[in-house]
Specification:
Chain lengths: 399, 268
Amino acid sequence: MTTATVPDHRGRYGVFGGKYVPETIMFALEELETAFDEAIQDKEFNELFQKELAIYSGRPTPLTRADRLSEYNGGASIYLKREDLNHTGAHKINNAIGQALLAVRMGKKKIIAETGAGQHGVAAATVAAKYGLSCKVYMGKEDIRRQALNVFRMKLLGAEVIEVTSGSQTLKDATNEAIREWVAAVEDTFYLIGSAVGPYPYPKMVKQFQQVIGHETESQFKEIHYEKLPDAVVACVGGGSNAIGMFAPFIEKEVPLYGIEAAGMGVETAQHAATLSKGSNGVIHGSLTKLLQTSEGQITEPYSISAGLDYPGIGPEHAYLHETKRVTYEAVTDEEALQALKLLCENEGILCALESAHAVAYSLKLAKKMRKDQHVVVCLSGRGDKDVHTLMEFEEGGE
Amino acid sequence: MNKRWKVFQHSSDYRFTPYIMAGDPCEEATIELSLALEECGAHALELGVPYSDPLADGPVIQRAGMRGLAQNMNLEKTVKLVAKLRERGLKIPVIIFTYYNLLLQLGENRFLKLAENSGVDGVLVPDLPYEESGYLQEMCSEHNLALISLVSPTTREEKLAKLSREAEGFLYCISSLGVTGVRSEFRAGLDDFLKAAKRNSRVPVLVGFGLSTREQIQQFDGSSDGFIVGSAIVKKIEELESDLLTNREEAIKTFKSYIESLLPVYSR
Ligand SMILES: Cc1ncc(COP(=O)(O)O)c(C=O)c1O
């Protein structure tokens, strides 16, 4: 396989990636790259990171066989990688701990972050509290309204939530605003990005801190199945951090991988967030990747019931894995995700996040077409408590 | 190097380079504002292109971009607008200020051909740092366009020297960290930064970002060869929006007296 050589020294995944940012922050990206490369070579740093994952976030997270769901669905059996059992309820904390430890190592006392649904904002506020850093979270005005609970959580954790009123007032604009703030405060501020997006070295760094998901999965699966590998691995893709972390150890192996985007109301409508299925090459948030845009290059607003998948871009490594066809990317609608969420609830007693429900929905379809002695692993990226409000609204309004 | 750049570079004035947004508040207003700026003594003009995600701009220019977008202004039309400006007699160099995604979607080659034929003199791409600019740099040279380099107080010493040496058109020195927008104070040590830039540069060194008053502009005469004013002018245009649409002659008059109040007396 050809993937071993990416990213190259310029931060490229094939044509994708790079650093499309104002000159003012170029030095900070270089500084970050040097500090990151040194840190991951340093045994002490790695041990500290592993220790924090264990004693603060509760890792390793289990790999749970979904017995009743698999039985109900038919075909291959389904395993759930339980990222929902992390502290703060999602995989986002893995990356937040990693980057916060790096910030501390670099002597930075201030962190800034962007957030859409508030999950990464909560993770960032959490690690800021834990490591004694000040924290500003940029969040679109529209999202602040939709995600009041997470806004309150961030404030409880001592973070300052900054309302973003530019553009369409959602995640893409919150990210623009966080980058603008970084340009202004770059000399003493660490930008703690929430997904495998952004200028190099962010995509590489986020993958590094999330690959614990895939490594644990591999060894847990091998332990149950006498050194065999899963027959398929499935993860949802917003910016792509839980997916790239889950895929990391499998990319070089013969394991079919599936990344699931949000089809919203359907990819044939204008209301979706299916960046790889429907997007084209362009630059967003410092990286050349696939994105949803007009023919003239104005970035368009995506739609998904799940705020965490509601992003018009995608990490550059996913754009590359899509182009080289190493990973199959499919899209799942709101409706299908909601159904899967209910099935998982009723058959396993697990309320997963709406984002993760997209991966579950596709796994059900996939497993049905596979043999009974085969195994599908799904990354259950987060728990669904944050979505209860949305679910209630949907139940009341929809049925 | 074309004739317009020669005039710009050989001028002994403290060079005034305004920035305005194409299509703000409408195309005809952009034309008349540009001509007015030249009459007031502008030595070159930066023409911004409306973009949905202007990562390097503060609120004032963001709003101007929204107004431009509402007029359906885009990169291709902005370039064609320069041809119209030439027909109407504009003589100073014009630099297109565009985000990289807009260039990519129009196609770099298509853009450069069109720009060359429309009387554009330079291109400035705020989210395309030197490290990513190799191809565009080459193509700009083929089409007789200057790719304007931005340098910042955070640019490392060797890089600053290299970019200053290789600069074409003019060298754009960012006065302060952060995005575009009016500022009340500048960074300490700015003079040293400008001096370092001037030491190596073969082209005029201009200072920009945040300048909004005559006093601020005068402060850099001596340490720089010229200055760029964006947000302050764009803000004035925002104030004059309705008159620029309905009572343009009057609005242009007011605009010109504002520009005159901004410029150091000797630079006119
Ligand atoms: C639970 C959960 N899963 C997935 C995502 C999508 O992000 P990514 O694609 O980076 O994993 C989010 C983002 O907020 C999330 O909260």
